[in-house]
Design goal:
mainly alpha, 10 helices, 220 residues, 81% helix, single chain, globular
Length: 220
Amino acid sequence: MKKKTQSLSLAPVFRLWAWILLFWSIYRYFFVLPEWLDEFVIKPLVFVGPVVWYVVKKEKRRLSSLGLTTGNLFTSIYIGLGFGFIFALEGLAANAIKYGKLTITPIDAFNEYGLIMLMLLSLATAVSEEILSRGFIFTRIYEKTKNMPVASLLSTLMFVCLHVPILVTSLKLHGFALVLFFVTNLVLGFANSMLMYNTRSLVAPILVHLFWNMTVALYL
């Protein structure tokens, strides 16, 4: 295992990410399907499927190398819930700054699906994006560079890029909302990279991502 980690090249990792981004961009541009289909079917196929294939077939490693492990489970849960709560408070503060007062502005999906289904959609999003961005991209960059800030920066920028297709095709944000979009995604990416580095598990990043998705859905 040590020998494989040392000889790991980042070029195939970046190529795989680029293909995922390209396919996701094309899909978002040409198709507008129900959100439940996007999050429960399409995104796992596009984001997670290629990663699992690459890890198992090309790297010949276990999925635990992606942080899919029960190690440090309860500690990761506590940390994830704690940081998730902090992110929820950050969302409330951003809401107050954006509207001048605290305003509840749930997205259309909340009215369409209800709170429980919206939480499941948010969880599905968090799982898919964290497996790709933190479990795969961050860990592989860190294994190669042994530099946590570099791995965090690169993986976070790549994480933000994954959101550009939806930004262009459906959100169409501008002004303060656009700035807030990029800032919050950068903060989320850096925070979850730190959690992944410290816990070696995706549990905490997924929980934080879930909290943040719900905050965005209900307040931003």
